[in-house]
C-alpha cells in the first residue's frame, strides 16, 4: 500500500469517529497521525502486522491506543506521540544504555523498550499482551478484550475471589523479577486488566531491569500499590505472603540478598 492510500484510509477512519467533535478530530489528526507516525504504521501494515484499525480506545498525554486487526487476530495499536514530553520518565532511563539523547529517538526507543519488555515478560510466563511488532513510535500487541473493546481495569470489576486474584498478580510480580529480571515500576489497579477471570499487566513502558538503581524502591512501591488496593477494596491483608514469598522465585528457591523486596 502506498503512503497516499494509507493516508486516505486514516482520513476515512477519522470520518467514522462520529462520536468525536471536530476539534478532537483535529487533535487526533495532528498529534496521533502525523506524517512520521503514518509512515511507521504503513511499515507495519505492509508487513501484515496491521490489516485494519477500528477506533481509538484510549487517549492519553503520551500515547493513544487504537483497536484493530492483524494476521494474529484482534490487536491494540499503541501510538506514542512525538509531541509528548518524556522529561518525567528520565528516572526510568538512568543506567539504561539503550537510550539516546534526541527527543524523537527517545520516544521511538521508549516504544521499543515496551516491546522488548513485553517479549521478556511473555517468555517468563507473565500474563501480558503478546507483542507483535514495533516501528518507530508505533507498537502493536494483542488486544486484551474482544470485539475491539478492551477488558475492564481491575478497579472497575468486583472480584468473586479476590484472594486468588491477588496471589496471581503477586506471582506474576515474582516471575517478572526472578525470570524476566524486570520490575513493572508503575503497577496499580489502573494498569491491570481483568479478562477471562485472569489479571493481565499492561503499560510495560516504565518497566526497569533489576540492576536499575531504583529497582528495589520501584518494586516495593508496586507491591504496596496492589496490596493497598486489595486491603481497601476487599479487606485483605496478605502480609506474610508479601514479606516472605516475594524473596523467593516461583520454584520456592531463596534468591533474596538483603530482604529489601518485602513491605516495610
TrEMBL record:
Kindly give the InterPro entries that the UniProt entry links to this protein: Kinase-like_dom_sf (IPR011009), Prot_kinase_dom (IPR000719), RIO-type_Ser/Thr_kinase (IPR051272), RIO_dom (IPR018934), RIO_kinase (IPR000687), RIO_kinase_CS (IPR018935)
Q: Name one GO molecular function term.
A: protein serine/threonine kinase activity
Query: Residue ranges under compositional bias (Basic and acidic residues)?
Result: 245-257
Every copy of the Protein kinase domain together lies at 51-264
Indicate whether Nucleotide-binding appears among the record's keywords: yes
What are the protein's UniProt keywords? ATP-binding, Kinase, Magnesium, Metal-binding, Nucleotide-binding, Serine/threonine-protein kinase, Transferase
Q: Which reaction does it catalyse?
A: L-seryl-[protein] + ATP = O-phospho-L-seryl-[protein] + ADP + H(+); L-threonyl-[protein] + ATP = O-phospho-L-threonyl-[protein] + ADP + H(+)
Annotated region (Disordered), positions in chain: 245-264
EC number from the UniProt entry: 2.7.11.1
Q: Which domain of life is it from?
A: Archaea
Q: Which PROSITE patterns match?
A: PROTEIN_KINASE_DOM (PS50011), RIO1 (PS01245)
Q: Name the top EC class.
A: transferase
Q: Which SUPFAM superfamilies match?
A: Protein kinase-like (PK-like)
Which parts form a coiled-coil structure per UniProt?
Answer: none
Q: Carries keyword Glycoprotein? A: no
The family classification in the record reads: Belongs to the protein kinase superfamily. RIO-type Ser/Thr kinase family.
Q: Sorted alphabetically, which PANTHER family does this protein's record hold?
A: SERINE/THREONINE-PROTEIN KINASE RIO1
- What name is this protein filed under? non-specific serine/threonine protein kinase
